[in-house]
């Protein structure tokens, strides 16, 4: 059994070196042997530049084979890869580099104009890897000491949708374990092909897509970003059997299909659909399943756990929005948000989790780590959910996002479900604004389906049949598109600032 993530590639180098692994937009492909050669070049350069065990190597990237090779080369060198999405702003890139105390920064220039712009701004020089450039070595960077130096494979920054991003340390053991769990959950084999557009700078792209495919020998139809026309072409002509992504992917794909007048995409090899990295709306699930004739599977996971802790079972045909059942060696407990006491089935509370995939902590941030860790090795997620008697988990949103109205708790996901069931609504996001009397005003932002217009009266009539009076939005605001981060998560922090600009509330986590 491998103990470091680069050993996943080593297995296939000895077993099937000529088997294709990555399929690129120009029709070319990269075999395991060719990826191995890229990894060798990257590893040699890291050693020549005196990258040490426990050093952080940042990769400002969009998906490409060279990024995958750098992740694996860092593992060989004992360094930690730290992927950052190239579409982030310069100030964000610089802040992450400082917080990670990086030894070196790479840029995927050929795959990303955004990465090339960052490289030029930071004075990068050509790398030994094709299509890549790199910064000068930061001599002042301090390597992380043992035992963390050997345990950790990657550093990923949280999305920061509600507060400041934090550097999550992901261990080799956690990532390999999750790769195996994902392979089993999806029954992956070398015959499968996944559409790999989810950024490898995010745990979804790193664990669910890249490493699980390496574990199983499955192939990747790799793309630097999401393009619905390209996805439809890949489904029709390039043997894609696995499609995973955040709910945003499926929402935008449905909108594109509607615009193009396509009722059922041509996807002869497709057998598995999965969405994660955000709550699943029932209306979206039903629409996706109607279009593809397949179950839309769902799971609950987060960066701090190196992937999913709950996923729906492969042969289950659930008609609800459950995140499924616990994966191997993972535990989830629903607790009272105030006392931390475990709650019985059917009651809503904060989700605590623990298990093999849990992070050792946030990088060089003991205060933030202590704020989320609880006795017994539990991690307090800040997410709201409930567990049903059959062990199925339902995630309701963030504890921080819960709205207090007329003395009652209002869960934004419940209001969003009612909004999204209206035929004119593509998707929605609900936030609360503090009022002088201690209540919170409910504000709904909606993104309309192609060609639809907002009829506020009709929408409010629709909500009257589905929501109690205290749950109905006081304001409904139509936007051309809900703001999202580079991983497809809706930025409710931005929406709250727009809805209630006098609010200075932050997320201490």
Notes on the protein architecture:
By secondary structure, the protein is α/β, with parallel strands linked by helices. Strands 4-3-5-7-6 form a five-stranded mixed beta sheet, sandwiched between helices. It has a five-stranded mixed beta sheet with strand order 12-13-14-15-16, with helices on both faces. Strands 17, 18, 19, 20 and 21 form a five-stranded antiparallel beta sheet that branches. It is globular.
User: What's the overall average pLDDT, rounded?
Assistant: 92
- First-last Cα distance: 36 Å
Strand order in the largest sheet: 4-3-5-7-6
Q: Largest beta sheet, briefly?
A: 5 strands, mixed
Total E-strand runs? 26
The helix content is 25-40%
Q: Structural class, please? A: alpha/beta
Number of discrete helical segments:
15
Tell me the CATH architecture of the domain at 6-169.
Answer: 3-Layer(aba) Sandwich
Strand content: 25-35%
Q: State Rg.
A: 22 Å
CATH class of the domain at 6-169: Alpha Beta
Q: Which residues sit in consecutive blocks of at least 5 with pLDDT less than 50?
A: 504-509
């Amino acid at each position: 059994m491998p103990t470091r993530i680069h050993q996943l590639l080593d297995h296939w180098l000895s077993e099937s070196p000529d088997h294709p692994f990555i399929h690129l937009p120009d029709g070319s492909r990269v075999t395991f042997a060719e990826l191995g050669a890229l990894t060798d070049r990257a590893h040699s350069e890291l050693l020549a530049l005196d990258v040490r065990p426990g050093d952080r190597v940042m990769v400002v990237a969009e998906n490409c084979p060279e990024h995958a090779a750098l992740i694996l080369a860092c593992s060989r060198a004992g360094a930690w890869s730290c992927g950052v999405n190239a579409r982030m702003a310069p100030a964000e890139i610089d802040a992450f580099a400082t917080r990670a105390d990086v030894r070196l920064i790479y840029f995927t220039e050929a795959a990303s104009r955004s990465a090339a712009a960052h490289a030029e701004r930071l004075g990068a020089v050509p790398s030994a890897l094709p299509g890549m450039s790199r910064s000068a070595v930061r001599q002042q960077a301090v390597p992380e000491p043992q035992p963390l130096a050997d345990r950790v494979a990657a550093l990923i920054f949280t999305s920061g949708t509600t507060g400041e991003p934090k550097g999550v340390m992901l261990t080799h053991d956690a990532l390999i374990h999750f790769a195996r769990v994902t392979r089993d959950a999806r029954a992956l084999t070398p015959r499968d092909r996944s559409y790999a557009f989810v950024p490898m700078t995010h745990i979804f792209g790193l664990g669910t897509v890249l490493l699980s495919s390496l574990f199983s020998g499955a192939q990747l139809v790799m793309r630097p970003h999401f393009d619905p026309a390209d996805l439809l072409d890949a489904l029709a002509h390039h043997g894609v059997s696995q499609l995973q992504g955040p709910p945003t992917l499926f929402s935008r794909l449905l909108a594109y299909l509607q615009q193009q007048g396509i009722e059922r995409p041509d996807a002869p090899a497709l057998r598995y659909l999965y969405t994660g990295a955000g709550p699943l709306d029932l209306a979206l699930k039903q629409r996706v399943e109607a279009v593809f004739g397949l179950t839309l599977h769902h799971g609950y996971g987060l960066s701090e756990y190196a992937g999913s802790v709950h996923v729906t079972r492969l042969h289950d045909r659930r008609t609800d929005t459950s995140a499924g059942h616990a994966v191997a060696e993972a535990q989830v407990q629903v607790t009272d948000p105030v006392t931390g006491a475990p709650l019985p089935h059917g009651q809503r509370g904060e989700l605590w989790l623990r298990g093999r995939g849990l992070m050792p902590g946030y990088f060089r941030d003991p205060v933030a780590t202590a704020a989320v860790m609880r006795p017994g090795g539990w991690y307090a997620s800040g997410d709201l959910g409930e567990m049903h008697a059959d062990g199925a988990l339902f995630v309701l949103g963030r504890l921080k996002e819960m709205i207090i109205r007329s003395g009652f708790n209002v869960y934004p996901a419940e209001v969003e479900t009612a909004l999204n069931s209206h035929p004119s609504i593509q998707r929605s996001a609900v936030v609360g604004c503090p009022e002088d009397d201690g209540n919170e005003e409910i504000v709904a932002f909606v993104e309309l389906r192609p060609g639809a217009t907002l009829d506020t009266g009709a929408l409010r009539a629709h909500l009257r049949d589905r929501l109690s009076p205290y749950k109905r939005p006081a304001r409904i605001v139509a936007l051309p598109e809900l703001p999202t981060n580079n991983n497809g998560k809706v930025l409710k922090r931005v929406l709250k600032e727009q809805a209630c600009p006098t609010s200075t509330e932050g997320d201490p986590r």
